[in-house]
Amino acid sequence: MKLQIQLLAAGLIAAAGLLPFISYAETPEEKGLAIAVESDKRDNGFIDSTANMRMVLRNRAGKESIRNVRVKTLEVQGDGDKSLSIFDEPADVKGTASLTWSHADKPDDQWLYLPALKRVKRISSKNKSGPFMGSEFAFEDIGSQEVDKYTYKYLRDETLGAIETFVVERYPTDKYSGYTRQIAWIDKERYIAIKVEFYDRKNTLLKTLNSSDFNQYLNKYWRPGTMEMTNHQSGKSTTLTFENYQFQSGLTSSNFAKNALKKIR
To answer: What is the pTM of this model?
Structure first.
């Protein structure tokens, strides 16, 4: 779940000499790319993960609706990760499942199983900016954040709270992205994104994602306990909280097959 809302990688490459390159890269573009590569490499090797996710949707007036979701992720070498979200509660979304095959150099493949219709709906690459299950996360936000999905530009160093960060601007390569650019605050020590601003197609600030309560797993991999996406234009927000992370539990590609969506319980 490199966003997951992934966005969120946590390191051996530093010892191999990449950090001097990050410090002395000749251009902001080179430095921005080097930071992204470092972040990605630190998250390599987790193999698979599962977690329980609580999704809280809030409208402009603050009224909440809550959904309980199981999330599963499979690392894919040489391509983007595969991820599966299974909605268990409330009753009106029970059995709904979302499947994403992320890709490094082409649009993600995404499907949504709707139990009421007993059919699998493919999410068009032109509609990835649409809301994921009524949340403030778009479908394009829930795929793994592969390096090649963006071009980059280092902007500055900045202290965010008590955390020293790199501030990096990134530009989606997908022509159907709902964003012109994103600005990410990357923790200098752990190389994880703790804040991301999203700018819409008019280059106006649309949303801000804040990730917190990080824990380290297997002595290497950082995952957030909380992710909050605030939509500045609609006044709505979505908070995701995660618990019961498990890694290397034996998931295989068959667990993430499109044909298996209808059989998921």
So the answer is: 0.88
Q: What is the domain partition of the chain in residue ranges?
A: 18-263
Tens digit of each residue's pLDDT (9 = 90 or more) over 141-175: 998 889 999 999 999 999 999 999 999 999 999 99
25 pLDDT more than 80: no
Query: Three-state secondary structure along the chain?
Result: CCCCCCCCCCCCCCCCCHHHHHHHCCCHHHHHHHHHHHHHHHCCCCCEEEEEEEEEEECCCCCEEEEEEEEEEECCCCCCCEEEEEEEECCCCCCCEEEEECCCCCCCEEEEEECCCCEEEECCHHHCCCECCCCCCEHHHCCCCCHHHEEEEEEEEEEECCEEEEEEEEEECCCCCCCCEEEEEEECCCCCEEEEEEECCCCCEEEEEEEECCEEECCCEEECCEEEEEECCCCCEEEEEEEEEEECCCCCHHHHCHHHHHHCC
Separation CA 109–CA 78 (nearest Å): 16
On whether the CB atoms of residues 168 and 184 are closer than 8 A, the answer is yes
Inter-CA distances, 82 with 22, 40, 119, 145, 253, Å: 29, 16, 20, 12, 8
CATH number assigned to the domain covering 18-263: 2.50.20.10
